[in-house]
């Protein structure tokens, strides 16, 4: 009884080892004869296909079969546009992709690279932020649009400058705060229409860029919002004038 069971177990282990050895031998044989299966990934597709038609068919198949992750999809929008992949197909993939780990900045960078797709990128951008619990009461979002914010990239590889980053943060904050009031400042203070998404980013960027009167902007904006609970300033922290140490509201924050 027991001896027979142990013997059968030992034979089972032998058969498993033999099967594993055969599997490894078959793998080495394929490597030696260049018979390995090519993985069906977008990276392989970029090198495998050369004509526009081949690439379009490839991208459309990858989209239809849902074989692109969120980041791969966003990073390859330009490649898809160049070979004329159908916009409705791209829209459907954007609407159904897993947005859980996509930072809002990714959509803004994608829209900068492929303006033709901006309208179908805005919905997933806003959807990414829709899961946030709203922070209550009135909040001023004050964005520095001075000359030092323009043209200086946030990293060597990035296409975004300081003002892009500031405008993106403002668009994110717009969705998080319950009652936001948005202002930009340089030499003067400007109230920004309470838009959303990429429209808000455009409104922030399309301002006059000059000096940086942060202290004056803080005081002037606070006077325009009675019952103010908090103020969030987005700036590179350069200022021509003095900034008082006590904010004109209960809570004050500066994001550099």
Key traits:
single chain, 256 residues, alpha/beta, 5-stranded mixed sheet, 13% strand, elongated
Strand order of the largest sheet: 3-2-1-4-5
Regarding quaternary structure, what we see is single chain
* Helical residue percent band: 40-55%
Q: Quickly give the structural class.
A: alpha/beta
Overall strand count: 5
- Categorize the overall geometry: elongated
| Secondary structure tally, helices | 11
The SSE string, one letter per element, is HHHHHHHHEHEEHHEE
| Strand portion | 5-15%
Distance between the termini: 76 Å
Characterize the biggest β-sheet.
5 strands, mixed
What's the gyration radius in Å? 27 Å
Compute the average pLDDT: 88
- Uncertain regions: pLDDT < 50 for 5+ in a row? none
What is this structure, in a nutshell?
With 256 residues, the protein is of the alpha/beta class.
Task: Walk me through this protein's architecture.
- By secondary structure, the chain is of the alpha/beta class.
- It contains eleven helices and five strands, in the order ααααααααβαββααββ.
- A five-stranded mixed beta sheet has the order 3-2-1-4-5.
- Helix 7 (104-113) runs antiparallel to helix 8.
- The longest helix has 31 residues, at 2-32.
- It starts with a helix and ends with a strand.
- 27% of the residues are buried.
- The model has no long low-confidence stretch (mean pLDDT 88).
Helix-strand blueprint:
Layout: H1 2-32, H2 42-48, H3 52-64, H4 70-75, H5 77-82, H6 87-96, H7 104-113, H8 118-129, E1 135-144, H9 162-176, E2 177-185, E3 189-191, H10 197-205, H11 214-223, E4 228-234, E5 251-255
Parallel strand pairs: 1-2, 1-4, 4-5
Antiparallel strand pairs: 2-3
Helix pairs in contact: 6-8, 7-8, 9-10
């Amino acid at each position: 009884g027991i001896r027979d069971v142990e013997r059968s177990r030992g034979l089972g282990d032998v058969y498993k080892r033999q099967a594993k050895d055969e599997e490894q031998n078959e793998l080495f044989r394929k490597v030696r004869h260049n018979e390995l299966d090519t993985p069906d990934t977008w990276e392989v597709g970029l090198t495998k296909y050369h004509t526009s038609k081949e690439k379009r068919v490839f991208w459309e198949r990858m989209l239809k079969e849902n074989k692109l992750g969120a980041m791969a999809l966003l990073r390859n929008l330009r490649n898809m546009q160049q070979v004329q992949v159908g916009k409705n197909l791209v829209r459907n993939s954007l609407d159904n992709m897993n947005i859980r780990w996509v930072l809002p900045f990714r959509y803004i960078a994608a829209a900068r690279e492929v303006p033709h797709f901006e309208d179908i990128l805005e919905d997933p951008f806003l959807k990414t932020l829709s899961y946030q619990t709203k922070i209550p009461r009135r909040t001023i979002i004050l964005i520095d649009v001075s000359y030092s914010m323009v043209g200086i990239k946030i990293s060597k590889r990035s296409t975004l400058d300081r003002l892009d980053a500031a405008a993106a943060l403002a668009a994110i904050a717009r969705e998080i705060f319950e009652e936001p009031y948005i202002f930009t400042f340089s030499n003067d203070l400007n109230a920004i229409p309470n838009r959303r998404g990429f429209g808000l980013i455009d409104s922030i960027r399309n301002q006059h860029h000059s000096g940086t009167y942060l202290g004056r902007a803080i005081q002037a904006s606070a006077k325009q919002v009675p019952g103010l609970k908090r103020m969030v300033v987005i700036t590179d922290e350069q200022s021509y004038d003095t900034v008082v140490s006590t904010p004109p509201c209960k809570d004050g924050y500066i994001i550099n």
